[in-house]
Amino acid sequence: MDHVSYQARVRQQREPRYGADVDASLLWEGVSQPVTIRNISVYGALIIGAWLPAVGQRVTLIAQGLEVCGTVIWEGPDRCGLLLSRAVDPLAIIAESGMVKDDRPTITLQRVGTDRYA
């Protein structure tokens, strides 16, 4: 009896993705649609929107401090993935939008004595 082994596919992304909530516009073939950038990396972005282009469509993504061409590489019911045509600075785009996401908890210290804080 022959045995067949399968390895699970592992999705590896070379560049880190940063969570975002950045308002933007997506343009293609004369259509301009409001979208939200939900996460972004140096060469890619996850876009959420009501009406999005099909896989393979060339688009332009425009947000505060950003205008970059890209290609839709996957699509879902209300989202799509873009491969950007050039490198972008994800943290600068998030900062430019005024949305700074820091998942670290905030710690507040109060002075309880000389050189003592709690």
Jot down its keywords:
six-stranded antiparallel beta barrel, 118 residues, 8 strands, mainly beta, elongated, two-stranded antiparallel sheet
Give a brief outline of the structure:
The protein is mainly beta and 118 residues long. Helix content is 6%, strand content 45%.
Number of helices: 1
Oligomer: single chain
Compute the number of strand runs: 8
Largest sheet: 6 strands, antiparallel, barrel
Q: State the distance separating the first and last CA atoms.
A: 68 Å
Sheet with the most strands: spatial strand order:
1-2-3-6-5-4
Mean pLDDT: 85
> What order do the SSEs take from the amino end to the carboxyl end, as H and E?
EEEEEEHEE
- Helix- and strand-based class? mainly beta
Rg, Å, rounded: 20 Å
Helical amount: under 10%
3D architecture notes:
With 118 residues, this protein is mostly beta strands. It is 6% helix and 45% strand. A six-stranded antiparallel β-barrel has the order 1-2-3-6-5-4. A two-stranded antiparallel sheet has the order 7-8.
